Fold isochorismate synthase.
Amino acid sequence: MSSPAPARPRPVHQAADLLAAYLPGSFYYSSVRGSLLADGVYSPVHAAPGGRARAAAEVLDAALVAGVTEPVVAGAIGFRPDAPSSLVVPAVVRRAGPPKARGPVAPLGGNWSVSPQPAPEVYTTAVARALDEIRDGDLRKIVLARCLDVTGGDPVAVPRLLARLVHTDPAAHAFAVDVSAPGDPAPRTLIGASPELLVSRRGRVVTANPLAGSRPRVADEAENARRVSDLLASEKDRAEHAHVAAQVAEVLGRFCVDLDVPAEPEVIGTPTMWHLSTRISGRLADATDAGSSALGLAEALHPTPAVCGVPTELARDTIAALEPEDRGYYAGLVGWTDQDGDGEWVVTIRCAEVRDRTVRLFAGAGVVAGSDPEAELAETGAKFGTMLRALGLEGAA
Ligand SMILES: C=C(O[C@H]1C=CC=C(C(=O)O)[C@@H]1O)C(=O)O
């Protein structure tokens, strides 16, 4: 006869201690729901797109049997189906409450050179071409991205960069993920502070918070108020947003009962941007299937028109044709799922990839009929602000 396992007290950690304990190679994730720091690898999770949730559930079962305490699957998945992914069941997971705002963290220092990739006029030409495709063909929305390479004299202090991201905006979904691949000459870290919740699951309750439609935030509050009301009234931005909210609602509708989709978007603010936002929630019809774990839902939702477009396949092909730089992990998903299927995944935006002395920032903007190439260039410049602030280079885009 088997006897129940003795209940072990859960070790109590402070959010600030987890952040302070982060080292490159660890997995860090924090949001208003809590903080998670994971180290070591019990097992990688390898599976093709669409099969990851089931593979994750199997590895989590094996980890439990092997004695891993409260295992999770954590990591990042790239934008394209053929992009790399970095998903593991870590050997050790520590959890704490949400991070709190604290005093300023010292800047990274150093002399940085900043180089847009591609050149700004290549980006505006791509937006103009996308507008031609929208006018002449079936494309209705496309998100076009560009990069900013920031290079310093010394290897980048990733833990300090992460601490600055978290302290600037403790409400963001902050992350740092080791995305090194075999043969890389130096370790690579995906780091960022995303405002966009792809999906979270807690028990049967599912929440998503699609964002699209933007204005840069400025210091002057009267000007911010004008920008917020302009954003709410903008037909172009509302169309851009409606594509995302509709697709997220349609996908979650396949899994949920009692889906609540607000009829009107609201505006949310980050320290650098204002966005149209729709908070969607529902209850899972079947919470036992691996396909409805947080990772399963995230895979079903990806890529939303917040990072790809409408229709999805045509937008993805047009992105491949118009963007000269590979997105890699940008515009993919980052997060974690536990053995109950609970977890949280965010859209990988307001992020960068750090490799030795270089930080490659990514930012994209949604293009619909009525978009203006110069305005999209400026919008992507403003979106770089999240990472530039953390680097101490505000205004360098
Ligand atoms: C694609 C990005 O942002 C998305 C999320 C919010 C608003 C967006 C926009 O207004 O274009 C984008 O869809 C990015 O930051 O790289």
About this structure: Confidence is low (pLDDT under 50) at residues 1-6. The two ends are 66 Å apart (CA to CA).
